[in-house]
Amino acid sequence: MRLAILGGGGFRVPLVHGALLRDGGVTDLVLHDVDAGRLAAIERVLAEQAAGVPGAPRVRVTTELATALSDVDFVFSAIRVGGLRGRRLDEQLAHAEGVLGQETVGAGGIAYGLRTVPVAVELARLIGELAPRAWVINFTNPAGLVTEAMAAHLGGRVIGICDSPVGLCRRVAGALGIDPATAWFDYAGLNHLGWLRAVRVGGEDVLPRLLADARALESFEEGKLFGVPWLRALGAVPNEYLHYYYFAREAAGSASRGALLLEQQRDFYAEPSLASWDRTRLEREATYMAETRDGERDDLEGGGYENVALALMRAIAFGERANLILNVRNGTALPGVPEDAVVEVPCVVDANGAHPLAVSPLPGHALGLVTAIKAVERAVLEAATTGSREAALRAFALHPLIDSVSVARRLLDAYTAAHPELGYLA
After folding, report:
1. What is the dihedral of CA 386, 391, 393, 394, to 10 degrees?
2. pLDDT tens-place string over residues 358-402
3. Beta strands in 1-92 (DSSP E)
4. CB 245 within 8 A of CB 400
5. Quick one: 67 exposed, middle or buried, by C-beta within 10 A (0-12, 13-18, 19+)?
């Protein structure tokens, strides 16, 4: 099995490589990046990781996209258009207007999407031309939006992944004292905008038992983040990113994570090694979403997106049936959402790809939020594919976390002035 990672000079690539070393079935790994220096740094870390490991994948690096896509079975897309400097700018410009700057939510997510979608669409076109039989696993953020953009060219051969749902389900299972492999998690929504509504074990929904136990609720991240009263009021456990919506005023003035990561990773790339990578990774995990919680994160295992990617690849390549929460075209799985919209729902994966499973309808408040954010995503897609500045303005102005057309207009002006990649928005 041959795998190409686009964005192969990225900091999180060793996580994927580590998973492949444990049990990947991958014989050849090619890393592609536009930055040869970053590629060299990650290549050095991977060589240290693989030292003494029998059957480790052969690793190649290239700055030529056609070379990376030649004769591959899977393409893992983890690009960051504009780099961390772009993320820092997104956050700073949003904060200057008093709104949230997070990279996938609100103004920052829209700006990131407007930069990324044109590149993702071109990647999808090239993959369809140069590697038509390859499956694309997308982790490029905003993951749901980018997956939907690529699906217009690749159909069901592009599948989006995220570590948030699997981490949430694992933590809830731990609080309930159950093996997650024995449970069915009724989770649905969009990427970074989903709710866990039921946990069924042997036909019984055991989530009400968790909601009734304050001590158990307070034992894991989401319980601490949202608080027992709010979780009981919802009757569900939200994805942690919903904190930005439910506690928008508290989150709007949060510090720039992009600036923090830029400083951390600058030190790593200056003197790359497996030890410095691991140290930086732990610092990164400890401060993940730190703006939404008091103190450091107490779950440093991470959500495990690399394990989701590995399970997804093995299910398709070897027919190892798997149940995973993924970003795929809806079909009829989630009522009230267009069939061609990419949603985040449980899927069965086999050699023919990911098949979304029917989930119970979202309650009105959740469906309303999903519908609003999907309208924003569709406006971003329109702007990115047609160059419409009006569509881009609509994306900013319609977002629930941007409460003013005037603010939306100033944000659009500021982002287009700051990012050369947005020059297409005439």
Report:
1. -160
2. 999 999 999 999 999 999 999 999 999 999 999 999 999 999 999
3. 2-6, 28-32, 58-62, 74-77
4. yes
5. middle
